[in-house]
Design goal:
This protein is of the alpha/beta class and 385 residues long. The protein has a single domain, classed as Aldolase class I (TIM Barrel, Alpha-Beta Barrel), CATH 3.20.20. Helix content is 58%, strand content 10%. It is built from 17 helices and eight strands. Strand 3, helix 7 and strand 4 form a beta-alpha-beta unit. Helix 5 crosses helix 17 and helix 6 crosses helix 17. It is globular and about 70 Å long.
């Protein structure tokens, strides 16, 4: 019998998390099977995932109707968080053995603060604290968008002892800022005499969306390129996202393996903030459907894999230490974009802005749909009576 590629990832130092959650997988035994058969080690969620989960079917109808009866004065946002927190708690309980056996390295379930707070530092801190208390599970992670306003949120929550998933990372520069905010948070916590060996964080570095944008820019350059430029462009097509991720991993090694600030914290039990590869579903049909899993396998990393990519990788994924291959050349190859006149910092900022806006839109759609669904359920209830 052939070995399951998903279960081989941990042999190479990488944890496989699932970028999806819905009530059906909790009740059907699907989550338990993924943990036992596929070595699933965590779950991530975002507003788009919850929008699809709640609006595609009737899994949440009964719970929503019960909430409306017990909390008639609550708004749609309150109803959403009641539903979402119940899912997060159930998933966290199923993953608790993973959390315990890994000494808190894995076994996490992530819930994001309201995306309309991405540019409001204090409101994000307040809501994150409330969510962590309400979930009441040591293996919960609160997702914080890595906007400039989100940096002090990450630092404050880590100092509080709250596990953080710093999300929507596109640029290497912002990743470094996030990692330093994490370290500052640990330093503040340690200075107050609190434990730092039980606080964990990941930095969610987005992949496929980077290639979508960079390939478009390369295509525009190809139209008027010289023969020499055309060769450089073709060499970079489909590679920008992977090189960007490898460049971030180089910074990870510097920050958590060589930097004296973290070395001091590590002596007191601190764990590094692992890089988590997010948005790893392939969007370009010309590329392999497992490109962003196969190309970024390496130690002390996480890949949160969406459903279709999870099935594809389980079926035909190849496992090797690809993240470390040609790692030292990542920065010089990435510089090829600037040499072509494609400046990465503004493009990465564009992706961050678009990501925040997309999640906010999904959240608005979700809340509106919840209201519409509740109205329908109440009408059906009245008709049945």
């Amino acid at each position: 019998m052939e070995k399951n590629p998903l279960t081989q990832l941990r042999e190479h130092g990488q944890s496989f998390w699932f970028d999806n959650i819905q009530r059906g997988m909790l009740g059907s035994g699907e989550l338990d099977r993924m943990i036992s058969e596929d070595d699933l080690r965590g779950i991530t969620s975002n507003p788009s995932i919850f929008e699809k989960a709640i609006n595609s079917g009737s899994d949440y109808d009964l719970a929503l109707a019960q909430l409306a009866r017990s909390q008639p004065d609550a708004d749609n946002r309150a109803y959403f968080y009641e539903l979402a927190i119940a899912d997060i708690q159930q998933a966290a309980d199923r993953l608790r053995p993973v959390y315990d056996s890994s000494q808190g390295v894995d076994g996490y379930v992530s819930l994001e603060v309201s995306p309309d707070l991405a540019y409001d530092t204090q409101a994000s801190i307040d809501e994150a604290r409330q969510l962590f208390i309400r979930i009441n599970r040591p293996n919960a992670m609160i997702k914080i968008p890595s906007t400039r306003e989100g940096l002090p949120v990450i630092e404050t929550l880590i100092a509080d002892g709250i596990n953080v998933n710093a999300t929507l990372l596109f640029s290497v520069e912002r990743y470094v800022e996030v990692a330093r905010a994490f370290v500052r948070g640990l330093q503040k916590r340690h200075a107050k005499g609190h434990r730092i060996d039980n606080v964990h964080s990941v930095a969610s570095f987005f992949i496929s969306r980077v290639d979508t944008l960079l390939d478009k820019k390369l295509g525009e350059k190809l139209i008027r390129a010289t023969e020499e430029q055309a060769a450089v462009i073709r060499d970079l097509q489909g590679q920008g996202a992977i090189l960007n991720a490898k460049s971030a991993y180089l910074r990870y090694q510097e920050l958590f393996k060589q930097d004296s600030d973290f070395a001091e914290l590590a002596r007191h039990g601190a764990h590094p903030q692992r890089l988590l590869w997010a948005s790893t579903g392939t969007k370009n049909p010309d590329y392999s459907d497992v490109l962003y899993v196969e190309s970024l396998i390496g130690p002390e990393t996480v890949n949160t894999i969406p459903p279709a990519t999870y099935q594809a990788f389980k079926d035909h994924g190849q496992v090797a230490d690809t993240l470390l291959q040609d790692l030292e050349q990542a920065d010089s190859r990435l510089a090829g974009f600037a040499e072509l006149g494609i400046e990465l910092p503004p493009l990465m900022q564009q992706l961050e802005d678009e990501g925040v806006a997309a999640f906010a839109k999904s959240f608005d759609t979700l809340l509106a749909s919840l209201g519409e669904k509740l109205t329908r359920l109440q009408q059906q209830s009245s008709s049945a009576a």
